[in-house]
Amino acid sequence: MKKNIAIIMGGYSSEHHISIKSGNVVHKYLDRKKYNAYRIVITKDRWFYLDEDNQEHSVDKSDFSITIDTEKIHFDCVFNAIHGTPGEDGLMQAYFELLGIPQTSCNHYEAALTFNKRDLLSTLKPYGVPCATSYYLNKGQSVDEDAIVDKVGLPCFVKANRAGSSYGVSKVHKKEDLGDAIENAFSEDNQIIIESFLDGTEVSVGVITFNNEVTVLPATEIISENDFFDFEAKYMGKSQEITPARISEKQESNVRQSAEFIYRTLGLKGYTRSEFIFIGDVPHLLEINTTPGLTEESLLPQQAKIAGISLEALFDSAIVEALR
After folding, report:
1. Cα separation, 174 vs 124, whole angstroms
2. 315 three-state secondary structure
3. What is the pTM of this model?
4. Which residue among 1, 48, 73, 96 sits deepest, i.e. has the most Cβ atoms within 10 Å of its Cβ?
């Protein structure tokens, strides 16, 4: 008997439209011999099922079900394709945990932890995971630009603490530009993190659970045409993404070990994609994505393809592992 799979997409953040693209790709490649696939769009105003004719049907939030022609449909599993809140920060995960519905991403606490850059890095530092020097700032606090520069130096990165796709991120070269960068970051979140600039090769490493085993995918080297890997570089062709990365055997071994160590130490499951910058042979962690992009051009699918895993197999495995 085929399983009913809800593919949740959209969300409340600036990444809404990117999530819709990811969700539609999942919908396209799910094996219809095994699954009945339903696109569920999550917005602040309403949750709805989008049928094959693009007609909208409301979702009953009390039990996460839909009704079509008087038939009430419940879901065996939820495929999470929401980037940002509420799909990557633990809110949807907690909701499904309460309802007892399996879902493909990590559990609610781990999602909340990894989505919060400051908490993530603070948690991993005692384990010896290298990362940039950082300075924290909350909305409403006074801004001491001299203290910021003294701690992290210039250039530096000003980032929204809980956002993705490089929304709210600026690279600052001069102290007088800090104010505008901080204001930009606060437009996405009321917490920000300011980090020292790490001058080295940037790589992205996918770690997934596949066939019941933690699997590290080939690393992707990121070369941005812009000043850093910003939104334009990520989504508008202003970068080169080279898989596998052109790094030494030692660097490859070190980053694979670090990515797997983080995945296991934090108790993650499903898909993750971790970003690192090498200083010498040592990978320094930038962040972790627990619902990474899933379009044909996205980094995780690129890495899976090099590893010999098709999109059909990649998406199927997520459901199999969630149901396990």
Report:
1. 30
2. helix
3. 0.91
4. 96
Cα 45 from Cα 150, distance rounded (Å): 44
Helix (H, G, I), strand (E, B) or coil at 16: helix
CA dihedral 195, 204, 103, 75 (to 10 degrees): 120
**DSSP secondary structure string for all residues of 45-101:** S-EEEE-TT--EEEEETTTTEEEETTEEE--SEEEE---STTTSSSHHHHHHHHHT-
Whole-angstrom CA distances from 23 to 1, 28, 79, 83 are 23, 9, 9, 10
Q: Classify domain 3-105 at the CATH topology level.
A: Rossmann fold (3.40.50)
Nearest-5° angle of CA 238, CA 149, CA 231?
A: 15
Where in the chain are the domains?
A: 3-105, 113-130+199-323, 134-196
The hierarchical CATH code for the domain 134-196 is: 3.30.1490.20
pLDDT in tens, 139-197: 999 999 999 999 999 999 999 998 755 677 899 999 999 999 999 999 988 999 999 99
Gap between the terminal Cα atoms of the chain: 17
| In this structure, CATH architecture of domain 113-130+199-323 | 2-Layer Sandwich (3.30)
